[in-house]
Amino acid sequence: MSIGYYQLETGRVAAIENDCPFPPLSQALIEPNGLIAIGGDLNAERLLNAYSQGIFPWFNEGEPVMWWSPNPRMVLFSNELKISNSLKKTLKKSLFEIRFNTSFRDVMTACSESKRLGQAGTWISPEMINTYCDLHQLGHAICMESWLNNQLVGGCYGVIINKMFYGESMFHTQTDASKVAFANLVNHLQNQGIGMIDCQMHTPLLASFGGREIEREEFMQNLTKLVNF
């Protein structure tokens, strides 16, 4: 099947249909960082295929699906987790009840409603929530939750394929609730033998947890081993 293209100011990007394969990662645009294809759908099979190739969807509601593979790539190796002294104190206080995988849709919905600096809207559309809930039902999407007085006050979620985890988003309505959930999630993943957590793009928060940027080639070498473990 031939692949069409969109012509952007910074280069051309593949236009894919539902059954069209992704182009090689070498075709990802340098600017914007890692845009590799536009189009297709968001069913569970397509998402698993994308993640296994180091590609993820990110787009605003009302836009066509946009697929990305940034270079460099922000990752957290599970054995490199760093916990700040202040967060250690919070963890010791056991302020929150930690639950695993009990309210996946609620976590995603809360993430979609979180206001983020520099963003007017959210990429977590109702369609995306439904599709990731399908992945959850298949055992390929998980969440960690922080509860206070039986209320969900923080959490994070992502996609898991064999020994590879792809972090997606987190939220909090109480101070440190998302950080506590994330720290517990990383410890859970490490106990499950997960070798690498894809954090996608650099943020100060992820860096504070020990996340670091690596080149796409190294990322894909690690990903391929872990996905096929």
Description:
31% of the residues lie in helices and 29% in strands. It has 229 residues and is of the alpha+beta class. It has two domains: 4-70, Leucyl/phenylalanyl-tRNA-protein transferase, N-terminal domain (Alpha-Beta Plaits); 74-227, Leucyl/phenylalanyl-tRNA-protein transferase, C-terminal domain (Aminopeptidase). It has a seven-stranded mixed β-sheet, with helices on both faces. Strands 1-2-3-5-4 form a five-stranded mixed β-sheet, with helices on one face. A hairpin with a 2-residue loop joins β8 and β9 (151-161). It is globular and about 55 Å long. The mean pLDDT is 94.
Features of the shown structure:
7 helices; 12 strands; 29% strand; 229 residues; alpha+beta; Alpha-Beta Plaits; Aminopeptidase; single chain
* Largest sheet descriptor: 7 strands, mixed
Strand order of the largest sheet: 7-8-9-10-11-6-12
Question: Which architecture of the largest domain per CATH?
Answer: 3-Layer(aba) Sandwich
Q: Assess the beta-strand content as a share of residues.
A: 25-35%
Structural class of the helix and strand makeup? alpha+beta
> Can you tell me the overall shape?
globular
Individual helix count: 7
Helix-strand topology string: EEEHEEEHEHHEEEHEHEH
CATH homolog superfamily of the largest domain? Leucyl/phenylalanyl-tRNA-protein transferase, C-terminal domain
CATH class division of the largest domain: Alpha Beta
How many β-strands, per DSSP?
12
What proportion of the residues is helical, as a percent range?
25-40%
Uncertain spans: none
CATH topology of the largest domain: Aminopeptidase
What is the average of the pLDDT values?
94
Distance between the termini: 30 Å
Number of domains: 2
Rounded radius of gyration (Å): 18 Å
